[in-house]
Fold this sequence. Notes:
GO terms for molecular function: 5S rRNA binding; structural constituent of ribosome. Keywords: Ribonucleoprotein, Ribosomal protein, RNA-binding, rRNA-binding. Helix 3 runs parallel beside helix 4 (111-121). The protein has helices at 13-25, 67-70, 76-93, 111-121; strands spanning 36-41, 46-52, 57-63, 100-102. By secondary structure, the protein is of the alpha+beta class.
Amino acid sequence: xxNARIVKRSNSKAAAxxxxxxxxxxxxxxxxxxxxxxxxxxxxxxxxxxxxxTESKTLVSASTMEADLRSFDGDKxxxxxxxxxxxxxxxxxxxxxxxxxxxxxxxxxxxVAAIADGAREGGLTL
Length: 126
């Protein structure tokens, strides 16, 4: 097989998400001019990174695990929107204006869409 990463066929939700993510990653790649904003979502938290794929480097990251967001009152969707706004502020400080959005194989709804909305409100171009 030409692909270095081979996902074992399984009927689990995680395997299905991995298949969707690898299918998405064939088309979405981050460059130095427009890095990739990747979302990782668990049942309780969200983790977002801005990655330059040409250098294989994480430029900026934010998550709900951080102390100021752990104390934030609100549901998971509201916290996800705050993570998007925080990431946008950090990206602006790092000189990043535009990113390519990688939803990580998740459906673009709920917390994933809230992260994107928060990043747009923070001034990032998706």
